[in-house]
Write a structure and sequence with these properties.
Two copies of one chain form a homodimer. With about 250 residues, the first copy, chain A, is of the alpha/beta class. The first copy, chain A, is about 15% helix and about 20% strand. Chain A has one domain (about 15-235): 4-Layer Sandwich (Metallo-beta-lactamase, Chain A), CATH 3.60.15. The first copy, chain A, has helices at about 40, 60-65, 150-155, 170-175, 195-200, 225-230, and strands at about 30, 55, 80-85, 90-95, 95-100, 125-130, 135-140, 160-165, 205-210, 235. Chain A is globular and about 50 Å long. Chains A and B meet through loops of A and loops of B.
Chain lengths: ~250, ~250
């Protein structure tokens, strides 16, 4: 699947003086990976120019990276890999606390065996809570189901980025692009009685942004009725380069 | 290193009727990989949408891919992996014969151990000869030395794409971007008495194109004296999207 925002990273803005200077240095100190699949990890290969940063992920995701020697290109002398336990808050940057938590999902596509569970709760598909003294935001790019635990957790959030892969569960099948439904891929779809738009009605969330759209999702078309429907329901359709200040 | 043309593939134009149709089908039947390093193989991860093709490479390069489960995303049911022996011509497309041959070089960066040989002749850095009934072209994106064997082979070619990584051997060191020289990275530089521009003087080659330029190479600047010098010596500076007909 090609996703609209294949390589979302949390790039924390900090005082420029905190960063080493140099022609190839980026203002980047932390990268947090929430899934081991290609659209989440391939971007790491473009960060291999001796750029120092800390790579945060669950042990399960670190294990996936460790099984692929190509990621040794992230030189261990400048890139520290830190394993983060679920539900344990850690400091992602000064004043910013992050907590990883499990969400219903599945293993990366390239690690699928013969049968695939898409309701797995483990450390390979996770969401992120980001907290400052006064604000609380969530990043959940893949999620198979909004269950009660998740609903309780998100209540009162200031900002939510949520899985917007498909509009309809069978959208790729109908487009002749394969046999996989959204459910089979571990994604809730936006539309319908089981969809994410309906599931979030009534939750107290300040701002809701769909991310991780598949290229079949009609909300990507600026003039589509589906985009208008999502917006009327209070959602923003995420775009590359979007910046949001709280 | 970031290269100007990080993902050169040989995309063979054939009659459209040869190709399966479908919204996501590309007019692509063969991919030939000549090196196991990231800038040569990472592009494969963007071809994982059930696009059928044959992946040609030496056994050594196939072994590198096989060591990284992330490349299993190229579904074995639609992507055939064919190992090509050095110096054995094979049909890359109807009417087009390709032959892989070893050139002086080194192993991929992420497989380097404590000491690195850059004059290795093996099956991890190779050049390609492309032949039709009437024409002969070469693609050599990485090469540490133009030795006599290679000189003899290239004599009389209609077209050559050649390693243009650096202008000067110590260009990255002088720019403050690290301690590595071109020689250490397994690349001939363009300039100077040992450089590729001098080495090719007197060879009978129809058209010469530099590819695989590093982002420190001044030939990438349209108004640089180095670009003018290379062009005066009969070279073209390769660009993304360039198409050449023989």
């Amino acid at each position: 699947m090609l996703n609209a925002s294949p390589d979302i990273r949390l790039q924390l803005s900090q005082a420029q003086s905190l960063f080493p200077t140099g022609l190839r240095q980026l203002p980047l100190t932390s990268v947090l990976v929430t899934n081991g699949d290609i659209d989440h990890v391939a971007g790491l290969l473009t960060l291999r120019e001796m750029q120092p940063f800390t790579l945060f992920a669950t042990q399960g995701i670190h294990d996936v990276l460790a099984q692929n020697p190509i990621f040794d290109a992230l030189n261990a002398s400048v890139v520290a890999r830190e394993a983060i336990a679920l539900e344990m808050p850690f400091e992602l940057a000064p004043g910013l606390t992050a907590t990883l938590f499990p969400v219903p999902g599945k293993v990366p596509l390239y690690l699928e065996g013969e049968s695939v569970k898409t309701d797995m709760i483990g450390d390979q598909t996770v969401g992120v809570e980001l907290k400052t003294d006064s604000q609380r935001a969530y990043y959940i790019p893949g999620c198979a189901l909004l269950n009660d635990d998740l609903r309780t957790r998100l209540q009162g959030a200031d900002l939510l980025f949520f899985d917007g892969t498909l509009w309809e569960d069978d959208e790729m099948v109908r487009a002749g692009l394969g046999q996989k439904t959204g459910k089979r891929m571990g994604h809730m779809s936006m539309n319908g009685p089981d969809g994410s738009i309906a599931a979030f009605v009534g939750l107290d969330i300040g701002r809701r942004v769909f991310v991780h759209m598949n290229n079949t999702n009609p909300v990507l078309r600026p003039d589509s009725s589906e985009k208008a429907q999502a917006e009327t329901a209070g959602w923003t359709i995420g775009q590359d380069g979007m910046e949001i200040s709280l």
